[in-house]
Amino acid sequence: MSKIAFVFPGQGAQYPGMGKDFYENSETAKAVFHQASEVTGLDIPALCFEENENLNQTKYTQIAMVTTEVAILKVLEENGLKPEVTAGLSLGEYSAIVASGAMKAEDAFQTVLHRGAFMQEAVPEGGAMAAVLGLEYPVIEEVLSKVDGVVSIANYNCPGQIVITGWADAIEKATQPLKDAGARRVLPLKVSGPFHSQLLTGAGEKLGEVLKNVEISEFSIPYVANLTADYVKEAAPVKELLMKQVSSPVRFQQSVERMVADGVDTFIEIGPGKTIAGFVRKISPESKVINVDKWEDLAKCLEEI
């Protein structure tokens, strides 16, 4: 019997048309998109399905992604699929908490709408991110500790792919030392700011105020938090974890390693793209990875499980 984890992608995996085939083929999915529109006052189907500039703006991307993920999740649940644990990459943590039964979908939609706006507003001039390829994270941590300026790890994605974040000049200072230490490449990323760095602490604090009014219920399924790469099974720590997550590194590699150590052998990526599937294959090549992005993926997933 497989031990299943539901995992959800984060910002950057979005594309025009995501979720449209679920909307057209499932009344359950359609209801989720309409619920998100009602809660946020935005035309979520238009945002997700049509070519538009807003989809790649942080304050709109986040609500679009979470709506699409929750819509697909609800269809999987309707078909009897249930995981033993959930996890998400950055923004995807909200969908993971919805899947865990601890947060209502409408509360997740309202919260990520604020989260996206706070993160976009908080972006300082001169902030940047870069991907470091071919170097393991303990070495990167050591190199960054000796660089003058604000620069740190943003995402522990998978072996050989780590994202750093901070002031652009500090990232520039770190580039040659990282290459000297063995990095194949240090690639600047096309992002709007230094996400998951201490420079976004203020956005996290604003989010904390919003979270005060969000009800976190008891968990029916545990999730693994980005901040700690550890299981969360009760409501008490969730709001602080989500608040700190905005300005702290995403420990996705460690999260997957933790789940695998506890017997998870099947990861179902729910949502746009195949980013997480790629990470999981590098972290745990022996694990089964299934991606549910398109309507046709649903039948394949149900057949394989």
List keywords for this structure.
single chain, 305 residues, alpha/beta, Malonyl-Coenzyme A Acyl Carrier Protein, domain 2, Alpha-Beta Plaits, 6-stranded mixed β-sheet, 4-stranded antiparallel β-sheet, 13 helices, 47% helix, 16% strand, globular
Brief rundown of the structure:
With 305 residues, the protein is an alpha/beta fold. The chain folds into two domains: 4-122 and 198-304, Malonyl-Coenzyme A Acyl Carrier Protein, domain 2; 127-188, 2-Layer Sandwich (Alpha-Beta Plaits), CATH 3.30.70.250.
Q: What would you say this structure looks like, in words?
A:
By secondary structure, the chain is an alpha/beta fold. It has 2 domains: 4-122 and 198-304, 3-Layer(aba) Sandwich (Malonyl-Coenzyme A Acyl Carrier Protein, domain 2); 127-188, Malonyl-CoA ACP transacylase, ACP-binding (Alpha-Beta Plaits, 2-Layer Sandwich), CATH 3.30.70. 47% of the residues lie in helices and 16% in strands. The protein contains 13 helices and 10 strands. It has helices spanning 20-25, 27-40, 44-49, 58-78, 92-99, 105-122, 137-144, 168-180, 201-211, 238-245, 252-261, 275-283, 295-304, and strands spanning 4-8, 85-88, 127-133, 151-158, 161-167, 185-188, 223-224, 231-232, 266-270, 288-292. The protein has a 6-stranded mixed sheet with strand order 8-7-2-1-9-10, sandwiched between helices. Helix 2 runs antiparallel to helix 4 and helix 4 runs parallel beside helix 5. The termini are close together. The mean pLDDT is 96.
